[in-house]
Sequence to fold (145 residues):
Amino acid sequence: MSFSIESIDKSELKRFFTPVELDKHLKGSLVEVFYWDRKPFVPVKEDAVVKLYDWGSRERELKLPKTGWARIESVRDGKWDWLAPKKVIIPCEMGYEKNKWFKTPKGIWGLRVRFHNISRVYVLTEKADQKFINFTGHDRMPIAV
Fold:
């Protein structure tokens, strides 16, 4: 996904970027983050500020779902309840799926969960409509705000 760097405090960015990476990103206006990155993260709009959270979980030792996505159907079925999920807005401008960028002008919905002292955000997905399937070839899509 890509999002504007302008609304994010520099101290938040320092938690996720090395000094060299941060310097590179501060020269542009958008940040691109992919789930397969070394330390993937997502922006979350909270009140009047944007905070950054780790995106999903790939760590074997954590008792969290090993993915970056949450199916809306499983959330509705209560499968995420043990993590006290909270619906959040991920203010991204573009999404990325199967080598294709697509617009998300108002952002997408995410699910912030908490396990002990660890917070993570998962992108909420739904069954893709035919337009999205034709464009990306994927049967799931993020839920637009």
About this structure: Residues 2-142 form one domain. The chain is about 15% helix and 40% strand. Residues 132 and 141 are 7 Å apart (CA to CA). The chain has a mean pLDDT of 93.
